[in-house]
Design brief:
elongated, 4 helices, alpha+beta, two-stranded antiparallel sheet, Arc Repressor Mutant, subunit A
């Protein structure tokens, strides 16, 4: 996945998908296209997911019992599958949040340590 000229590792994108989708659904029921727009909005346009990435995540979360999907007619009369987070999904979201906060804390600590170290400029050989 490209993010403003930088490629984000597929493993990182995959790892962040569950907490992002669960957090969006914790805001309220939603459907696929609206979830894609919300991911883009929350990331300031830096994350642009495709249908091919989102729908397998939704189906997996549904199988796990974290969300429930229900077909409904939209205002335009078109059928859409709306997803709702379950109690089990809210519990999982809380666990995901704790895990991501621990990772974020560790990365911030190591980056602070690296920033405090003097920059070493390698000497060229043969000069």
């Amino acid at each position: 996945m490209m993010v403003q000229g930088m490629e984000i590792n597929k493993d990182l994108v995959a790892a962040s998908a569950t907490p992002l989708v669960l957090a969006i659904l914790a805001e309220g029921d939603s459907y696929g296209y609206a979830i894609l727009r919300r991911v883009s909005e929350l990331s300031g346009g830096r994350l642009e997911w495709s249908d091919g990435m989102l729908y397998p995540v939704l189906h997996r979360l549904e199988r796990l019992g974290y969300i429930v999907g229900e077909w409904q007619k939209s205002d335009t009369g078109r059928r859409r599958k709306y997803y709702r987070i379950t109690k089990q999904g809210k519990d999982q979201l809380a666990a995901e949040r704790r895990q991501w906060q621990a990772v974020d804390d560790a990365l911030r600590n190591v980056w602070s340590l690296l920033a405090a170290q003097p920059v070493l400029i390698p000497l060229s050989r043969g000069i």
